[in-house]
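A reminder before we start the practical. When you read a complex entry, don't treat the lines as separate problems. The point of joint prediction is that each chain is placed relative to the others, so the output describes one connected object in space. Small molecules and nucleic acid strands, if listed, are placed in the same frame. In the example below there are two entries. Take a minute to note the order of the lines before looking further.
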Amino acid sequence: MKYPQALQDLIDEFAEIEDKMEILEYVYDLSDEVVEFPIAKWSEKTRIMGCQSEAHLEVVVVDGIVELRSGADAKIVQGMMGIITIAINGRKAEDVLQLKPDFAQEMGILNSLSPSRSNGFRNIFDKVMAEIRMKQ
Amino acid sequence: MSLKDDFPILSREVNGHPLIYLDNAATTQKPQVVIDAMSQYYSNSNANVHRAVHTLAGEATEGYEDCRRWIKSWFNAEKAIFTSGTTEAINLVAHGWGRANLQPGDVIVLTEMEHHSDIVPWQILSEERGIEIRYVPVLDDFTLDMEAYAVSLENAKLVCVVHTSNVLGVRNSVDELISLAHKAGAKILIDAAQAVPHDRIDFKQFNADFMAFSAHKMCGPTGIGALLVKNDAFEQMQPFMGGGDMIESVTTSGSTYQTNEHKFEAGTPKIAEAVGWSAAFEWMSEIDLPAHHERLLNIAKWTADQLRELGCTVYGRHQSGDAAVVSFLHPTIHSEDFARFLDAKGFAVRTGHHCAQPLLNRLGITGTIRASFYLYNTRQEAEKFIETVRHIVGKFA
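Here is the predicted structure of the whole assembly.
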């Protein structure tokens, strides 16, 4: 699949890192990339179900352009949100909906893409896509 | 040759590091003899049990029933019903005994320390039958409030209590719990999932009415477990699953049931798993369990002390009889991040609520990181674990 340039750059950067610890440290640092979603706005509606950590998001679609706002108490989970932010923010909703979650495996940040209690990324990705579909 | 050499999986690497498996409270690894026994069964003896007269069916039946003999002998039990594990064993008591013997207004006593498997079946039954559930609180020293327990027993028909906590490793005062339940006229079910891997329990002497456990936490296969039942409680049970193997005869006007354990084992059972479990029993019979238990508890205690020195809060006490489980939290590094960093270095630990949310609510937390040790773990592995925790704390705290 052809990815948007910002996401492709990120995938390429991850591809150069072999050590799992360094991959996680990079994801950890990407927690700064999220558009802040203040804790005061966190609610059951914004909660990402199935995550072990407390993770919340909202998606705003204005004039067809997507903005993800998000936050989590686990930095690596927030880092995953940061990656998705880079992948989708400022892009057209119809284009974003074409995106598949496989890029997380290409980056080496996931052992599995199957939905599960431990798979924060998949749960975040699925919720983002569901929100965009709803608000498109 | 070390005991670890019997476990092929323990020689693999994870993320470029030797695997150090510390998630034993979730499931233990399997020795080669268990893997071989299951493979051998499927290669040579696979057939359905009990009915056919051909040779393979005879071998399969022998393999399946041999495991029941192992269980009865290992635990000195009168009746051993195969289940898919501890959860199904508890559900069998809820549906097989509870439905037949509990009336609206009857009382079941649980504790705040229970695994969800020993809460949810009772909540379902409670909603269906109007049964009252009482919960025994957990005290600040991680033990059960025995005074509250004594009070809660008034009019109780059944007590369901965990032998050893999967979160804290704390071994409850089971002898006292059983004795007080019986004095109050209640039957008692012990969730022994975390106890049987460490302790060779004599079910008759133990004197509980029901005891539930799983094979996979004691080096056996997943998907099989057992419910031990005293004879009088067994006679009070009714099947809750109908089907093949559990019947004596079936006509269009009704059915009659077997009178032994098969009555509760409808459908084709877990034959290969039973064969594998027998191999696990045989392998464990060569192990000095009490000596290993003491060794592992010392490792857990040392690990807990080291974690405290690194600023972590440890949930547990690691006293004699407790399981080698170390649940902890760091004040600033999220447990999920911590576990991912540990995984990157080859350590398998568990995070989350460990299916014991009422206990974690009581402790005022939402999850812990849990390192749980078993027969093949060593002090050197614990030292490497602490060294890695120190590195993570140094970098991310």
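Discuss with your neighbour: Strands of chain A lie at 35-36, 55-62, 65-72. What might explain this?
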